[in-house]
Design a protein that fits this description.
By secondary structure, this protein is mostly helical. It has 9 helices and no strands. It is elongated.
Length: 161
Amino acid sequence: VNNYETNCFHYGAVLDACARTTAWTKALQILGVMLQRLVELDTVCFNVAISACEKAGEWATALYLFTALARGRLECDTISFSAVISACEKGRQWEKALHPFSEMPHLGVQLDTITFNSMISACEKGGEWKKSCQLFSLMTQHNVELNTITCSAAISACEKG
């Protein structure tokens, strides 16, 4: 490794492998190595690490990484928001997911089907059926495409209400 120049792209490939295998602790170690070696971090690297935490059910760590990304010089994108909202959804933390979701329009970040689906599912798992219905309605108001996941999550939320 010392004979070759490594950059964010190379480390990103390793981070992606960690995310695919739910090796979230390894992903965090890789981010640490990148910081030590002064490799310039980008939004994609953070997004992959957040996704690794999300897949492992580590919502608090995903939220921490998202906050670090948001406070840093890097811009959060739709993938950043979707990953952290999904992590909170899987951890049954609908209230934690609501803050990043509500910030998206203020920051000029596009609300999309995946983000809405994660938020509707988070509310459904939290027993917040009214909020799920509000989000479903908001989706149609914003002309965001509905899909089978959207409808299933909204129906499930209403069943529980």
